[in-house]
Specification:
Blueprint: E1 2-6, H1 13-22, E2 27-29, H2 30-36, H3 43-52, H4 65-74, H5 76-97, E3 108-111, E4 126-131, H6 134-145, H7 149-158, H8 162-167, E5 171-174, H9 179-197
Parallel strand pairs: 1-3, 1-4, 2-3, 4-5
Helix pairs in contact: 4-5
């Protein structure tokens, strides 16, 4: 069984998934896969460079993520082009990585910020949302990535609204609390999933 773990930018998905990892749960991060499929030498990066020009590449030939992020959030048509290229490639690789050999637990996690906005939703049996107030999302993301408030708000606007995301959840982790409380929530959910999926 596949549990989709999602949440808005800055909600703390990475912290929560590491706690599941400490319980030996296998997880695949869609952001990691998205980076892997555009590494130097991949067909996807070659297509991106042809489309956007040399500005999209750094001196070492890798993707200039900051440049690309600003471009696609400023020009919605370019974002559509990029998503049309990458989403099918990412999906295929996610499916491959979600089925590890010699794995003994009855569920795995698919971690994806755009789980509910893309067809990745079709890959999962349950939806787990990591939730914090929007003000916390903005503060954390500005501090973590050194991004402007405007950029963070535009990224949040491209994601599903917090209330809509929570309304689609089978379970919610409140990540606006001390770590020990988050650990307790993760342990409870892990035990619940073991029972449900066994």
């Amino acid at each position: 069984m596949i549990v989709g773990l999602t949440g808005g930018i800055g909600s703390g998905k990475s912290t929560v998934v590491r706690l599941f990892g400490d319980l030996d749960v296998h997880w695949v991060d869609a952001d990691d896969v998205a980076r892997e499929v555009v590494e130097p030498g991949t067909p996807a990066l070659e297509a991106i460079a042809r489309h956007f020009g040399e500005d999209v590449l750094l001196a070492d030939g890798s993707l200039n993520r900051a440049w690309l992020r600003e471009r696609v959030f400023a020009e919605p048509d370019e974002r559509v082009w990029l998503e049309t290229l990458l989403h099918p490639i990412i999906r295929k690789e996610l499916i491959r990585q979600l089925h590890p050999r010699d794995y003994h637990l009855p569920y795995v996690l698919l971690v994806s910020p755009l789980l509910l906005e893309t067809d990745q939703r079709d890959l999962v049996n349950k939806i787990l949302v990591v939730d914090v107030p929007e003000s916390v999302q903005i503060e954390r993301t500005m501090a973590r990535d050194n991004n402007s408030r405007e950029l963070v708000e535009s990224i949040m606007a491209a994601q599903m609204a917090r209330a809509d995301r929570c309304s689609q959840a089978d379970a919610i982790i409140d990540n606006n609390c001390p770590l020990v409380e988050v650990e307790r929530q993760v342990a409870e959910l892990h035990n619940r999933f073991l029972l449900e999926f066994s």
